[in-house]
């Protein structure tokens, strides 16, 4: 404790990215430990564009664990927070804070309380999965503060997994596999890095944030309903995904965009088919989502090979992968078919990296109106505002300390 008995505070700040699955996790075999029915593979998104930043502080003055998410206090009483914090406290070690010289022992951590302040760098209202980045960041930051060392590879990911299954994949950068594991205690259900983001450097990602009016079924309850009622989900987990995981690993190791694209689209479509096969059926995609699928499918068909790949999670937003050289052409098609809502400026409609706008030679709204019709696109209708905005990003690094 403080050498002169005065109050002190010790903190750490870290950042963790969102991730998007290209082979989807949908369905648990153990609800409490969050063990999945199948392995999954994801791409980590550049934390500069989509991440959570979390500061965790401890002080003898704090009398309870507390959490603030995007400036609003949130209760830590839910089972998921309780189990993550317990698992972390159980692994805390003796630490000496370099800045203050304060020494905190393993024993002290049992009683010391935490204040956790977390913020996303993207609008929460956008309906982009933020729980993955949030839980990964919370677990990573607390582990740094408490000096936790992994006693087996992937141990930290088993804790992030207890917060939200997909969170375990956000600890790593690049391309990540969540091994479903076989054990009942979940020790082998871990995230493993497959390749760093710079190993496949020319991949670009455009996220289409679709305006949505309806409240969606949460992933957690949606997948519970699918496990209980969808025969397709069980067939998928047993017969389809194991083969696709192997094929996706091969596509990634060869940087084979064509196979990557086919697998990504097929797996997204099958995931949404299992949602439709659920009773009552769950609809995450809407008409705009389906128009985006149409745009990509038409383009791929007209070129005779995959130019881009789409994937959708538990909501209507599209995530589109494209090789850098075709990024401008993708943006051309998106802006042609989905011009910005009336009165919106270009920099609010296309956010994140400006690389693709530059490749397309667009720097003002009027340029969008004069875009030529892509050969395979239907005649432009006058509909505006189906997309809220676009985020141009790329694969990126995993969780890291900010100091
Ligand atoms: C469609 O990780 O949000 O995004 O484990 O219940 O917290 P819980 O669910 P969550 O589910 C993510 C489902 C998905 C596919 C994926 O990310 O693999």
Automatic annotation (TrEMBL):
Limits of the Mvd1 C-terminal domain: 205-400
Gene3D superfamilies according to UniProt: 3.30.230.10, GHMP kinase, C-terminal domain (3.30.70.890)
InterPro entries xref list: GHMP_kinase_C_sf, Mev_decarb, Mev_diP_decarb, MVD-like_N, Mvd1_C, Ribosomal_Su5_D2-typ_SF, Ribsml_uS5_D2-typ_fold_subgr
GO cellular component entries: cytosol
Residues of the Diphosphomevalonate decarboxylase-like N-terminal domain: 16-191
BP term (GO), one: isopentenyl diphosphate biosynthetic process, mevalonate pathway
Role of this protein: Performs the first committed step in the biosynthesis of isoprene-containing compounds such as sterols and terpenoids.
Family: Belongs to the diphosphomevalonate decarboxylase family.
Protein name: Diphosphomevalonate decarboxylase
Provenance organism: Selaginella moellendorffii
């Amino acid at each position: 404790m403080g050498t002169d008995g005065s109050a002190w505070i010790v903190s750490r700040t870290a950042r963790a990215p969102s991730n998007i699955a290209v082979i989807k996790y949908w369905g648990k075999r153990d609800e409490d430990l969050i063990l999945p029915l199948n392995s999954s593979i994801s791409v980590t998104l550049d934390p500069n564009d989509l991440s959570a930043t979390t500061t965790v502080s401890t002080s003898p003055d704090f009398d309870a664990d507390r959490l603030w998410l995007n400036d609003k206090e949130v209760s830590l009483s839910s089972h998921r927070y309780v189990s993550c914090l317990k698992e972390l406290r159980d692994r805390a070690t003796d630490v000496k804070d370099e800045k203050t010289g304060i020494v905190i022992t393993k024993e002290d951590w049992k009683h010391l309380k935490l204040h956790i302040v977390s913020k996303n760098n993207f609008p929460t209202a956008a309906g982009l999965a933020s729980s993955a980045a949030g839980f990964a960041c919370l677990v990573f930051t607390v582990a740094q503060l408490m000096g936790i060392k992994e006693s087996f590879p992937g141990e930290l990911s088993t804790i992030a997994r207890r917060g939200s299954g997909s969170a375990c994949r956000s600890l790593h950068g690049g391309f990540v596999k969540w091994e479903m594991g076989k054990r009942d205690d979940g020790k082998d259900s871990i995230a493993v890095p497959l390749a760093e983001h710079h190993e496949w450097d020319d991949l670009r990602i455009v996220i289409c944030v679709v305006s949505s009016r309806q409240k969606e079924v949460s992933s957690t309850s949606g997948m519970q309903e699918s496990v209980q009622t969808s025969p397709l989900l069980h067939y998928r987990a047993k017969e389809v995904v194991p083969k696709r995981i192997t094929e996706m690993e091969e596509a990634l190791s060869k940087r084979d965009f064509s196979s990557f694209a086919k697998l990504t689209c097929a797996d997204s479509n099958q995931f949404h088919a299992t949602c439709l096969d659920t009773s009552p059926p769950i609809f995450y995609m809407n008409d705009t989502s389906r128009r985006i699928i149409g745009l990509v499918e038409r383009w791929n068909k007209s070129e005779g090979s995959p130019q881009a790949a789409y994937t959708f999670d538990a909501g209507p937003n599209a995530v589109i992968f494209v090789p850098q050289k075709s990024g401008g052409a993708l943006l051309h098609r998106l802006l042609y078919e989905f011009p910005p809502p009336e009165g919106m400026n270009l920099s609010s409609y296309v956010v994140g990296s400006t690389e693709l706008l530059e490749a397309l030679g667009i720097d003002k709204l009027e340029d969008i109106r004069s875009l030529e019709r892509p050969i395979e696109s239907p005649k432009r209708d006058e509909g505006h505002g189906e997309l809220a905005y676009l985020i141009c990003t790329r694969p990126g690094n995993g969780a890291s300390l900010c100091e």
